[in-house]
Amino acid sequence: MIVSTPEGTPVPSTAGQTIGPFFGFGLPYQGGNEVAHPWSPGAIVLSGTIRQGNGDPIPDAMIEIWQADSDGSVPTARGSLHRDGHAFTGFGRTGTTDDGRYLFWTRNPGATEPGKAPFIAVALFSRGLPDKLHTRIYLPDDEAALAADPVLASLTDAERATLIAVRTADGGLQHDIHLQGEKETVFFAY
Amino acid sequence: MTAPEAATGAPETPPAPESLLAAPDQATQAQIRDEIVAIEEAHARALADGTYEGGRTLLDYPPYRSSILRHPTKSPKQIDPETIELTSPAFGQRDVAAIEADLTLQHAGEPLGERIVVRGRVLDGWGRPVRQQLVEVWQANAAGRYIHKRDQHPAPLDPNFTGAGRTITDDDGWYEFTTIKPGPYPWRNHRNAWRPAHIHFSVFGSAFTQRIITQMYFPGDPLFPLDPIYQSIPDQRDRDRLVATYDHDLTEPEFKLGYRWDIVLTGAERTWTEPEGGEH
Predict the structure, then answer these.
(1) H-only helix segments in chain B
(2) Above 70 in pLDDT, residue B5?
(3) How close, in Å, is residue A141 to chain B by CA atoms?
(4) A160 — contact with chain B (CB < 8 Å)?
(5) Lesser CB count within 10 Å: N end or C end of chain B?
(6) Statement: residue B236 has pLDDT above 70
């Protein structure tokens, strides 16, 4: 398609397509999962498993995260593809392992506005998934903020549980994503 | 083949990922085509009577067999994006070297195949350029083989072709890649399944909600009606938007053939106002 209408005219958007099975040499990159340098102050591990409808792990999914820094500021630093080991760019990307796991080094995001429940924005792609999915990973710590969150308030308890990470003993975050099934994660459209 | 029962206490060993690539039922192409047509007709009826509520791509699309266990069964929940979702990671020239936009220059020799240039613009839903943003591509070589270790299709690898590239859009939203036209390739969704030639595109917008991964096709491919991935987009107008346009003015004499393809991100639903003072 070549768009020939003048600027300011609504244009139908391009449809998404599956990432397919063979993205591994094209999209993941070295350091992609190190949103924060592993040895930097405040660095935590965010990890989990991505599963399909029968509970099997998905070995060919790709997950991207985008988040505020610990003080709630939205990162504007460039350099997500060539990390300098210092700047916090807020973006990470990783493919799942053969057993469906993903792992990021990052920081706890802060609330972008006072009183808001902090969360990590997620875009998810997989072989067998015809288009991207969006979800959120909420931090479990601030119960008052979680209770006040309008999106979480609109969900059943079971749905709500699919969006809130578990704090691990070492201060990290554990969060599984289910594309389908009893624990199906809540996905969003905007 | 059924995996043997894991011994008690032993960690479960996942199956080799490449063993999952073949759909268990191996339907015929005719069966797949019948399923495609039935869904297309149901979609057209739903559009006509105003009951269609899905997006441009069907997440639940059984002709694409691996989607059966991987599509959410509930419709995505419609929400208002928050601050972080209304912004996007920023990529810049530090992230991408200029040479990454030429997939024919990544090795000591030149790759085999038909050299092409693909040029287009990344626009938002109001036709405004998406400036200084990342566009990534990956593709099979001219013989239809991916360099990925799980692609075991018996077509040759090309020692002079990897098939991955990146660029940053300019201030008018333009991107350009020089590459080799990818070949069609077989996959194991059903018996005698072949993908039409395509280049995978990954694009960022100015909001994370605009993130898109899609595929660009070449005009007139005879495999279009047979391919459950292309057909997972039920509206012909939307499918047509994934097909590049041959542009003879972009073709360079005795060097490469030119294709044009624009990518439009979501976002027309937000109110657009004329910038004050007519400035950008």
Answers:
(1) 29-48, 236-240
(2) no
(3) 19
(4) no
(5) N
(6) yes
Contact B70 A58 (CB under 8 A): yes
- pLDDT tens per residue across span A147-169: 999 999 999 999 999 999 999 99
What is the average pLDDT across A51-55? 97
Q: What is the pLDDT of residues B44-96, one digit of tens each?
A: 999 899 888 778 999 999 999 999 999 999 999 999 999 999 999 989 878 99
Pairs across A and B, CB distance < 8 A: 274
What's the complex ipTM? 0.97
CB atoms within 10 A of CB B254: 5
For residues B201 and B137, give the distance between their C-alpha atoms in angstroms, rounded to a whole number: 5
Q: Is A21 on the interface with B (CB under 8 A)?
A: yes
- Using alpha carbons only, how large is chain B's radius of gyration in Å? 21
Q: To 5 degrees, how large is the angle CA A74–CA A77–CA A78?
A: 130
B185 catalytically annotated: yes
Catalytic annotation present for B190: no
B220 near B246, Cβ under 8 Å?
A: no
CATH of A44-178, one of 3.40.50.10610, 3.30.470.20, 3.40.50.920, 2.60.130.10: 2.60.130.10
- Which of B128, B131, B191, B200 is an active site residue? B200
Of the candidates B145, B198, B217, B259, the residue annotated as catalytic is: B198
Asked whether the predicted pLDDT for residue A122 surpasses 90, the reply is yes
Burial B222-251 (b: 16+ CB within 10 A, else e): eebebbbbbbbbbbeebbebbbbeebeebe
Contacts of B148 in chain A (CB under 8 A): 21-22, 24-25
Residue ranges per structural domain of chain A:
44-178
